[in-house]
């Protein structure tokens, strides 16, 4: 069975996660994994078996790419939250680091690119840091 949502498609055992233009609240790879988790719950998979069930259904690899408005390939390094989800599912990630370089491997490897903050995550982190600075220091 193939689960499709927006621009996410699964073809055979290779997964292509591309965020839809209007669904900016969730990155494509997290949305795709969340759909498969929901599908596992609908099939009655026990919660401790969901990760292995999803891995069996989508395969061991996920290819992530992002296109800029001019049509060129953009940086597709996973954000902090997507990085955590992809590590949880222990998937091999294939993503473009810039227009010339590609990364292929697990995000837990030593040569994996560090996760990047999205603009929304950066805004929330900045607000948290500003709020934390106003709190009194207790010993």
Description:
Helix content is 35%, strand content 18%. The strands form two sheets. It has a five-stranded mixed beta sheet with strand order 1-2-3-6-7. It has one domain. Residues 1-13 and 18-25 have low confidence and may be disordered. It has helices spanning 28-42, 50-58, 80-88, 119-134; strands at residues 9-11, 14-17, 61-64, 66-67, 73-74, 92-96, 102-106. Helix 1 (28-42) crosses helix 2 (50-58). The protein starts with 8 loop residues before the first strand and ends in a 5-residue tail after the last helix. With 139 residues, the protein is of the alpha/beta class. It contains four helices and seven strands; from the N terminus they run ββααβββαββα.
Question: Which terms summarize this structure?
Answer:
Transposase, disordered N terminus, alpha/beta, five-stranded mixed β-sheet, globular, 139 residues, two-stranded antiparallel ribbon
Please give the structural blueprint.
Blueprint (H helix, E strand, L loop, with lengths): L8 E3 L2 E4 L10 H15 L7 H9 L2 E4 L1 E2 L5 E2 L5 H9 L3 E5 L5 E5 L12 H16 L5
Parallel strand pairs: 2-3, 3-6
Antiparallel strand pairs: 1-2, 4-5, 6-7
Helix pairs in contact: 1-2
Protein name: Transposase
Short description:
With 139 residues, the chain is α/β, with parallel strands linked by helices. It contains 4 helices and 7 strands; from the N terminus they run ββααβββαββα.
